[in-house]
Specification:
20% strand, alpha/beta, 8-stranded mixed beta sheet, two-stranded parallel sheet
């Protein structure tokens, strides 16, 4: 994966997640991999969950860390709540749950009003309903002083021609996450919406798509590690943006 050279300049010293367990849903994806590697580097035990068992096995082999576990998990399955309880029984209450899931669908770029009912329904279920169900299933299994972090894209705030379903779901995820944060304020876990810009990932580099001005996926993970540890200066901000590699993470505008 494309790793940052050392810690980013904005990172604080001494953040450790020794003895903590973090679940990363979608951790075998491009951004997720950077997050997972940074969490492991900070000392956490990390459980990576996803739908594809073969992909998870390949990921675990490539990362090759004894503190990494993988679990098959389908956010739209009828037994999701039971699976969440099983994982909590196996690993204990999670100190952090990171949700990094998104699907562009198989329709490719398509004007909003050309989407079929089936295409629109798939995009909403894969990109919004799945996140809602993950929140409902796992929040009861996060430690009271832990953190729930949803990684979102800039389409949450701006038009996305050709990707209307994905953008609509992103905007709704932002609203959902901030609502859950407000509803649970003061009684834990902490809930964060993290909107990121263009990210340098291993799959993009393998495809020849790269820009040194983009944010290394590992830097996103460093920030998430600080949020879970409570050492980030943004630990009190439920809406955050990480859209510039030099500026680093910034708080979102307050209403």
């Amino acid at each position: 994966m494309p790793a940052a050279t050392g810690q980013p300049h904005w990172a604080g010293p001494g953040t450790t997640l020794d003895g903590r367990t973090v679940l990363v849903v979608g951790g075998a994806g491009g951004v997720g991999e950077g997050v997972v590697r940074s969490l492991l580097a900070a000392g956490a035990a990390v459980v990576v969950a996803g739908r594809n068992a073969e992909r998870l096995t390949e990921f675990a082999t490539r990362v090759d860390d004894s503190r990494l576990a993988t679990e098959v998990l389908d956010a739209l399955a009828d037994d999701l709540d039971d699976r969440a309880g099983e994982l909590a029984s196996r690993y204990g209450a999670f100190d952090g749950v990171v949700v990094s899931v998104a699907s562009f669908g198989s329709q490719g770029r398509k004007p909003a009003l050309d989407l079929t009912d089936a295409e629109f329904r798939f995009l909403i279920e894969a990109n919004l309903t799945s996140v809602f169900r993950l929140y409902r299933a796992f929040v009861p299994h996060i430690a009271a002083d832990g953190a729930l972090i949803q990684i979102n894209g800039m389409s949450a705030d701006m038009p996305f021609p050709g990707g209307a379903g994905l953008a609509l779901a992103a905007a709704a995820r932002k609203s959902l996450t901030l609502t859950v944060a407000a509803e649970r304020a003061g009684r834990g876990p902490r809930v964060y919406q993290l909107i990121v810009g263009f990210i340098r990932t291993r799959p993009r580099q393998q495809a020849g798509i790269d820009d040194p001005g983009w944010i290394p996926a590992a830097d996103v993970g460093v920030h998430i590690a600080e949020l879970i540890a409570g050492t980030s200066p943004l630990a009190g901000d439920d809406l955050q943006y990480f859209v510039d590699v030099e500026q680093g993470p910034r708080p979102g505008p307050r209403p």
